[in-house]
Amino acid sequence: MRFTLSSSALNSRLSTLSRVINNKNSLPILDCFLFEVLGNQLTVTASDSETVMKTSILLDNVEGEGNFAVQSRTILDAVKELPEQPLTLDIDMDNYTIKVIYQNGIYNFTAQGPDEYPRTQAMPEGANVITINSEVLSNNINRTLFATAQDELRPVMNGIYFDLTNEALAIVASDGHKLVRNKNFAISSEQPAAFILPKKPATLLKNVLQKDGGDVVIRFDERNAEISFEDSVLTCRLIEGRYPNYNSVIPQDNPNQITIDRRAMLGALRRVLPFASDSSQLVRLRIDAGKLTLSSEDIDFSTSAKEEITCDYTGIPMSIGFKGSSLSEILNNLTSEQVIIELADPSRAGLIVPSEQPENEDVLMLIMPMLLND
Length: 374
Description:
Number of strands: 26
Largest sheet: 9 strands, antiparallel
Radius of gyration: 25 Å
Structural class: alpha+beta
Distance between the termini: 77 Å
Shape: elongated
Number of helices: 6
């Protein structure tokens, strides 16, 4: 079997797929990429047994058809240093030897038979389907991924929750201290459905989804999801379990509202946070009419910091404490010029929303307060 394709196309696809492969695998064959040539199309697969990603490349010249597996490290090292040029792969399907012929040279290495490579099951008929714009999905994953937990006791908190209702699609993540909820009103369903996407496939999608506005089709049942985009398919096992009722922790009546420049607050927070206690990272917010004062202190090392920034505030003067690193992450993962911070009282969660919401969306971030020792 022999076929020709672009070196840079192969290199970029293999680099993306290599993120699926674990450093240590239970099956030696999972250290390999699976190559499948059918007609004038090459399909390359990478798997860690729970997450599988496939991508297709159109071939220029093809002689024969067949499947083989090749060590990921070997083929990556072979193509990553090559400038853009046609590559010809000549495979002896009896002995599984490969010649990679390029402009000024040749590589020789061995492949493996494809039989041991695990096959993915087709998604059953009647699976739930969500169609979402690739840029919208990429932005939503970017906004939520930081809020996922690393909790061995509650694995449901370790992923991103997709909650499809007759009102909207909500994409949610929480670690118990902070929460992100993105609602997309352009997507809804008469039949409610939900799934929890693990962190690894979510991170893969974040890195590979194009901002070209194409559609992503997500098909899922109770155990697995199949996510199709451009000329690639990502299949993964879902996190099983019941996600907590996230709406119940979002306070509804928040009469105290701060409108503030996001970058100014983030800058002040970065300057004040190094002087907070390492263990608590507590930053105090003192809010008065037209003024927000951020302060921190570490009694053990006799350090403290305080900075004032201007803001618009409607409400009663108040002091509230937040974990500085969590507040900084929330502000970093919003993109609007200004944010609105909604507060009820110092003992209840604070809500942070962009002053201008994305089209057809409602983005909300929540942060739990910390006790102040007044």
